[in-house]
Amino acid sequence: MAEEVNVEELKQKVLEYLAKKPWQVRDLAKVLRVKKRELDKIVQELINEGKATYWSSGSTTYVTTPEKLEEMEKKRSEMGAAE
Amino acid sequence: MPVVDGVELPETPLLDELEKGPWPSFVKEIKRAAIEQEKAMKAGKKIKLPGSAKGLLKVLELAYKEKRTHWKHGGIVSVIGYGGGVIGRYCDLEDKVPEVWHFHTIRVNMPAGWFYTTKALRALCDAWEKWGSGLTNFHGSTGDIILLGTRTEHLQPMANALAYLDKFYGSPAPFDIGGSGSDLRTPSCCMGPSLCEFACYDTLKACYEFTMRYQNELHRPMWPYKFKIKCAGCPNDCIASKARADFAIIGTWKDEIQIDQEAVREYAKVIDIEEHVVKKCPTKAISWDGKELKIDNKNCIRCMHCINVMPKALKPGKERGATILIGGKAPFVDGAIIGWVAVPFIPENELIEKCCEILEAIWEWWDEEGKFRERVGELIWRKGMDEFLKVIGQKADVRMVYAPRNNPFIFWRELNP
Questions:
Q1: Distance from CA of B342 to the nearest CA of A (A)
Q2: Is the dihedral of CA B246, B247, B249, B255 positive or negative?
Q3: What 3-state DSSP class applies to A62?
Q4: B364: Cβ–Cβ under 8 A, 6 or more apart, which residues?
Q5: pLDDT in tens, B154-204
Q6: Looking at the partner chain, which of A48, A55, A80 has a beta carbon nearest the beta carbon of B77?
Q7: How far apart are the first and last CA of chain A?
Q8: Are B148 and B105 in contact (CB under 8 A)?
């Protein structure tokens, strides 16, 4: 039971980070001091729940929240219009 | 403006140069697509990206004129649950050419060996004409079907169309999105035993098994960088796996080349065996006395030359299996880096299971130790082959040749120009 609480806490923490900017899971694992493999599973669950989503720089894939993604896409669209 | 088939096309003097010459031209094909799009619109067909082929011609012409690209990449991946297979492309000429402002690419997992029925191809094209530009590239370097150009809002419907291509478009089977980014790229294989007598294992089955077993790795990027698996049926390596795959599985045999002496004597009537076979053997392992061909199999390095010259007389041995090469890659700037022999021989009946065991051990190690954008071959250079062999549970062996072939390409010359 205690472990479940920890996972939920970790999920919440991950979401807070993802809401700020897109992350590579390996970098986020270092910051949060958890095993990458463990974080991979958590991120996958968040993606399946629709709370996290992929974002690609073109060559590298990052993970962020759908809200942050929308915000970035909006910015891109505005920048595109300004060019 | 030039008018073709009653359709006005943009002025493209620079692109027109690419239509000249005897080779196929992508410009010609884009123009054809532009004409077809216009006709479809006039016929009242519902297409989501009208004028996109015309728009593409305009952007390309401008790019050649200004000698700079107008494409930006990256951004949304947008198919639910998938982290790869969609490559975001945007054009910076939104105001001038709005038809191609969004022009995302979708990679589609091709069938093993690239075997299609015309029904499947028609269904793919019908779906893509509905949800995208209709422009395709058969195939990309990794082997995927490349669908060129659609808008963000059409990505999910197109992915759904692929998943139900059998139900709604009449394809014999549905299709799935392929790999991109830091994931397992779509595994590919040569046509193998379906069409080739040299195949030393069932490449199609192996490719299919890897694809089905590693769906998570294929669709969810989680590694330091890309990882490619290619299955070649024999050392001819028609899919150039040694130069392009991180994990190349190349068919080979352990025993002796099978010789039909009667057929060799038949060949002797039409070719000079001494000149074209014996002297061409890189290890001088063949002798011919005019009646009998002898091969010193211990010194055969599986170059395949004699078998290729006399396919009716010579065949790979009976004890078949494959060699695993690790760390091959083909970067543009540095040129091809050939894979290193990691496992000299795995018998055919154990091949798939053994490969999966090795693959999973490699991925665990590489995911843990690899730096950002470091291919597995580069990690081996950094950490040493010694450590890698421990990871995959192999002992060092003299057959683990660093680069068993040094030229990935076959240069074809016309004999009678």
A1: 26
A2: positive
A3: strand
A4: none
A5: 999 999 999 999 999 999 999 999 999 889 999 999 999 999 999 999 999
A6: A55
A7: 54
A8: yes
Q: Which of B242, B219, B254, B222 is nearest to B109 (CA)?
A: B219
Determine contact, residues B166/B87, Cβ cutoff 8 Å.
Answer: no
Contacts of B87 in chain A (CB under 8 A): 56, 58
Sign of CA dihedral B305, B306, B308, B309: positive
Listed in sequence order, the DSSP H helices in chain A are 2-20, 25-32, 36-48, 66-82
Helix axis angle for A36-48 and A25-32, nearest 10°, is 120
C-alpha R_g of chain B: 25
Give residue-wise pLDDT tens across range B105-162: 999 999 999 999 999 999 999 999 999 999 999 999 999 999 999 999 999 999 999 9
Q: Which residue of A has its CA nearest to B180?
A: A59
d(CA B280, CA B261): 19
- Are B229 and B359 spatial neighbours (Cβ–Cβ below 8 Å)? yes
For residue B359, the distance in angstroms to the closest alpha carbon of chain A comes to 16
Q: Which residues on A lie below 8 Å from B101 (Cβ)? A: 80
pLDDT band for position A69 (cuts 50, 70, 90): confident
| Closest residue in B to A76 (Cα–Cα) | B75
